[in-house]
Amino acid sequence: MQERIFGFPPVVGPNPRVLILGSMPSVKSLAQGEYYAHPRNAFWRIQAALFDEEWTGDYALRVQRLKSHGIALWDSAASCVRPGSLDSAITAAMHTDVPGLLSAHPTIGCIAFNGKAAQKLFLKFHGKWDAQVEFIALPSTSPAAAAHSFAEKLAQWRCILEFL
After folding, report:
1. Domain holding 73: CATH number?
2. Closest by alpha carbon to 29, among 57, 53, 14, 7?
3. Nearest to residue 17, comparing CAs of 133, 137, 163?
4. Active-site residue identified among 26, 29, 41, 96
């Protein structure tokens, strides 16, 4: 039987305006204790490009930059059973407390989903949503989502800037 895995706490600064939700950290991310740790995941490079910042391998600096730009980061699933890193292999998922996070941070006006799996899990857990928050479905930054080039992903991710 596969072991249950657990995600990370949210990354939230003092005045978040956008919450980016992934599905569940990859095996590499869990091992390193960092969101989006796989070197081929485009998440951190997209964030750097959105704000015209030099890419850095310094995780603490990347997190600080996100917070300074009003971006919070979390996952739709708090825990799950998943062999490997593919979102399609997620079973027995348990949700994060996104409503509680939004209540604690009413400045968040947009939830941006990093891929379809994050959105699907969120909707499964929370169903009809009454909060005054806009949703944006974005292409996954995962290396497994190779249907879009980096440039195409970046172009679509630019829409979060209007909420900042």
Report:
1. 3.40.470.10
2. 7
3. 163
4. 41
Q: How many independent structural domains does the chain possess?
A: 1
Beta strand residue intervals within the chain, DSSP E: 4-6, 18-22, 71-75, 77-81, 91-95, 110-114, 134-138
Longest dimension (CA), the chain: 45
Q: Is residue 41 annotated as a catalytic residue, yes or no?
A: yes
For residue range 40-55, what is the model confidence (pLDDT) as tens digits? 999 999 999 999 999 9
Characterize the bridge pairing of strands 110-114 and 134-138: parallel
Domain extent for 67:
4-163
pLDDT tens track for 1-33: 689 999 999 999 999 999 999 999 999 999 999
The whole-model pTM stands at: 0.96
